[in-house]
Amino acid sequence: MKINDVSKLTGLPISTLRFYERKNLIPDSYVKRDVNNYRIYSEEIVEFLDDVKALLSVDFSIEELSLLVNQQLLSYEAKTKMVEQKIKEIEEIQKRLKKSKKFLNAVLEGKANFQTSC
C-alpha cells in the first residue's frame, strides 16, 4: 500500500505517518521502498497503527512508544515496568472517573450537596 492508502484506512494524516517514521515509531518491517523510493506499507500496518492510536489515547508518549517498539533500546524488563506503570496510571484514572460519575449521578438525583439544580 502507498502512504495515501494507509492514511485513508487509519484516518491518520500523511504528515502524521511521516512523523511516526521520523520518530522511529513504525518498525522497518512494515515499510519498504520501491524502485522510485516511494514508501510501500504492508497490510499489517493498519492494525499496528490502530494499536498505536489506542496507546496514545491512554497517555503513552511518542517517545515511550518508540522505546517499546524498538527492540534494541530497552530491555524486556524495562519495557515490562513501563507497561505496568501505565496500567497503574490507567487504574488510578478509572478510580477518579468512577468517583466523578457517582457524584454526577448524585447531582442528577438531587442527592449531592452542590450549588446547582439539574
Strand-helix topology:
Elements: H1 3-10, H2 14-22, E1 31-33, E2 39-41, H3 45-57, H4 62-69, H5 76-108
Antiparallel strand pairs: 1-2
Structure description:
With 118 residues, this protein is mainly alpha-helical. It is 60% helix and 5% strand. Strands 1-2 form a two-stranded antiparallel ribbon.
Quick take:
By secondary structure, the chain is mostly helical.
What key phrases describe this protein's structure?
118 residues; 5% strand; mainly alpha
Share of residues in helices: 55-70%
Main beta-sheet annotation: 2 strands, antiparallel
- SS summary, helix count: 5
Quaternary structure state of the chains depicted: single chain
